[in-house]
Amino acid sequence: QKEVEQNSGPLSVPEGAIASLNCTYSDRGSQSFFWYRQYSGKSPELIMSIYSNGDKEDGRFTAQLNKASQYVSLLIRDSQPSDSATYLCAVNEGSQGNLIFGKGTKLSVKP
Amino acid sequence: NAGVTQTPKFRILKIGQSMTLQCTQDMNHNYMYWYRQDPGMGLKLIYYSVGAGITDKGEVPNGYNVSRSTTEDFPLRLELAAPSQTSVYFCASSYRDNQPQHFGDGTRLSIL
């Protein structure tokens, strides 16, 4: 059974701090990695995608991928209360391309 | 630009009733997906389609059926509703595999 693991949290950080969210996956054939943000009662919203080893930055968000360690992370700089949400890590299955989602990490940014 | 549209947003069913959850996308995406999300359990894939006329089972297909007669539409059918199908259902689409999926707003379904 291919799996995507995330700490459920809640992860609590003060406003202005860096929030670090982590994800590990079991399928070595995975090629595509995504971070989604989901506010309570809303649908998942794509915030980052990453396909190659290394870092990818987009505004306050940085995704980091290490395929050798089967590890992907999301850093949120200058965290804001509006970043408080559940963050879902999604990894494609190598053979079919379907996404496997982690259960999500709940982030709380305290003013 | 509507994206992925799901109807209805909320529904209450009695045990044994049937219904169809509608999903349509206007992005000309080939791939479409149905997920269910239970509290604390993440998203589970029910069915997916890689194009019109082609559907396949996901991780949790029992109790559901789908069809894909057009590129735009991908309805999900519940034939005999059971309490275990109480969940939030999301439809998503993508241009191809390995590309980001875009989600609809979801249907909150309760079966009593």
Please report the distance between the alpha carbons of the first and last residues of chain B: 36 Å
The quaternary state of the protein chains shown equals heterodimer
The helix count of chain B comes to 0
Question: What order do the SSEs of chain A take from the amino end to the carboxyl end, as H and E?
Answer: EEEEEEEEEEE
Overall pLDDT metric of chain A: 93
The gross shape of chain B turns out to be globular
The residue ranges of chain B in which pLDDT falls below 50 over 5 or more consecutive positions are none
How would you sum up the major sheet of chain A? 6 strands, mixed
Classify the secondary structure makeup of chain A into a structural class: mainly beta
State the helicity of chain A in percent bands: under 10%
Q: What are the secondary-structure elements of chain B, in order, as H or E?
A: EEEEEEEEEEE
Which chains make the largest contact?
A: A-B, 22 and 22 residues
Mean pLDDT of chain B: 95
Total count of helical runs of at least 4 residues of chain A: 0
In short:
The complex is a heterodimer of chains A (111) and B (112). Chain A is an all-beta fold.
Description:
- The complex is a heterodimer of chains A (about 110) and B (about 110).
- Chain A is built from no helices and eleven strands.
- Chain A is mainly β and about 110 residues long.
- In chain A, strands 2, 4, 5, 9, 10 and 11 form a six-stranded mixed β-sheet that branches. In chain A, strands 1-3-8-7-6 form a five-stranded antiparallel β-sheet, with no helix packed on it.
- The model of chain A has no long low-confidence stretch (mean pLDDT about 95).
- Chain B contains no helices and eleven strands.
- In chain B, strands 2, 4, 5, 6, 9, 10 and 11 form a seven-stranded mixed β-sheet that branches. Chain B has a four-stranded antiparallel β-sheet with strand order 1-3-8-7, with no helix packed on it.
- With about 110 residues, chain B is an all-beta fold.
- Chain B starts with a strand and ends with a strand.
